[in-house]
């Protein structure tokens, strides 16, 4: 696989980053994951805009302009022959010569830019979309700025392991009695014709897929209600699903051992997945 590091396209085993890189020592980095279908990037502009916002919120310098980022995405997709898969991008505050809690001077420390692709044939036609996911609930123990897409993914990773140990597929995180989001996706329930999902705030990531799916839902005459919901309300809902750049729209069929609706993917979730895959290609 060919990867990209700070201006260079390299075989992955030749790509190197300093041990003093702030992302390695302090999780001082942000990232984006953009999906690829039919060799084309899905919603690149949305991901680029969110990256810009993440960088700004952390007072971090952009490594280059958006056009250059788009070119690197396209070149990696081409070089690696990706038809279906993902492009991962990470920007860090760079590698000053030593470990220090104080941010390095942006004049002298260049940000680190890394991109690589993940080949995922069959991503759009995923069998999981037909069976649906089983979810457990866990306490949300992340920091308070989940709107910034940082590489601090230890707790979401632990959450995924808790789910696996419990024989489930993923976890929804709960704070003050309400679902925030999934370990790596936004969470939704459906009641009648209404799609219910938590409103945007610093408590959740502002999903690029979320924005598109809510728009498609409204266009398909579904109602959208942006508000908090609890695990109990989700268990009693007609349907549930999650969205993300890698999962698109993925039905949820069970929450903490309780079947949601008929315990099979709900028809609105299935419809929204179809619309999303059709419209965003
Ligand atoms: N995760 N919420 C969290 C906590 C996420 O990590 C993600 C994405 C989302 C969905 O955002 P989007 O629709 O923009 O992908 C919501 C990516 C896919 C990941 O970490 O791999």
UniProtKB/TrEMBL annotation:
This protein's UniProt keywords: Amino-acid biosynthesis, Aminotransferase, Branched-chain amino acid biosynthesis, Pyridoxal phosphate, Transferase
Pfam families: Aminotran_4 (PF01063)
Listed transmembrane segments: none
Gene Ontology CC annotations of this record: cytosol
Catalytic activity: L-isoleucine + 2-oxoglutarate = (S)-3-methyl-2-oxopentanoate + L-glutamate; L-leucine + 2-oxoglutarate = 4-methyl-2-oxopentanoate + L-glutamate; L-valine + 2-oxoglutarate = 3-methyl-2-oxobutanoate + L-glutamate
Recorded GO MF terms: L-isoleucine-2-oxoglutarate transaminase activity; L-leucine-2-oxoglutarate transaminase activity; L-valine-2-oxoglutarate transaminase activity
Alphabetical GO biological process terms: amino acid biosynthetic process; branched-chain amino acid biosynthetic process
Enzyme class: transferase
InterPro entries in the cross-refs: Aminotrans_IV (IPR001544), Aminotrans_IV_CS (IPR018300), Aminotransferase-like (IPR036038), BCAT-like_C (IPR043132), BCAT-like_N (IPR043131), Class-IV_PLP-Dep_Aminotrnsfr (IPR050571)
Co-factor(s): pyridoxal 5'-phosphate
The protein's Enzyme Commission number: 2.6.1.42
Pathway(s): Amino-acid biosynthesis; L-isoleucine biosynthesis; L-isoleucine from 2-oxobutanoate: step 4/4; Amino-acid biosynthesis; L-valine biosynthesis; L-valine from pyruvate: step 4/4; Amino-acid biosynthesis; L-leucine biosynthesis; L-leucine from 3-methyl-2-oxobutanoate: step 4/4
Task performed by this protein: Acts on leucine, isoleucine and valine.
Family affiliation: Belongs to the class-IV pyridoxal-phosphate-dependent aminotransferase family.
Protein's name according to its UniProt entry: Probable branched-chain-amino-acid aminotransferase
Organism: Thalassococcus profundi
């Amino acid at each position: 696989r060919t990867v990209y590091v700070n201006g260079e396209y390299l075989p992955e085993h030749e790509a190197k980053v300093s041990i003093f890189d702030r992302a390695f020592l302090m999780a001082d980095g942000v990232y984006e994951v953009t999906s690829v279908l039919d060799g084309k990037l899905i919603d690149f502009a949305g991901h680029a805009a969110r990256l810009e916002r993440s960088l700004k919120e952390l007072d971090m310098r952009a490594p280059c302009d958006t056009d250059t980022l788009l070119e690197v995405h396209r070149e990696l997709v081409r070089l690696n022959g990706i038809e279906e898969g993902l492009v991962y991008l990470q920007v860090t505050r760079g590698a000053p010569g030593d470990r220090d809690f104080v941010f390095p001077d942006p004049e002298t420390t260049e940000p680190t830019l890394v991109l690589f692709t993940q080949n995922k044939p069959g991503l759009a036609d995923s069998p999981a979309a037909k069976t649906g996911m089983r979810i457990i609930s866990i306490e949300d123990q992340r920091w308070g700025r989940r709107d910034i897409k940082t590489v601090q993914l230890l707790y979401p990773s632990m959450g995924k392991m808790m789910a696996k140990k419990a024989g489930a597929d993923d976890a929804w995180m709960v704070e003050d009695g309400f679902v925030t989001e999934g370990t790596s996706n936004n969470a939704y329930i459906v009641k009648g014709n209404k799609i219910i999902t938590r409103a945007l705030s610093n408590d959740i990531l502002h999903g690029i897929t979320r924005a598109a799916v809510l728009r498609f839902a409204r266009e398909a005459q579904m109602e959208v209600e942006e508000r908090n919901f609890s695990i109990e309300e989700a268990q009693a809902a007609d349907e549930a699903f999650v969205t993300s750049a890698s999962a698109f729209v993925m039905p949820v069929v069970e929450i903490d051992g309780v079947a949601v609706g008929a315990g099979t993917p709900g028809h609105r979730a299935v419809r929204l997945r179809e619309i999303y895959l059709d419209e965003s290609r």
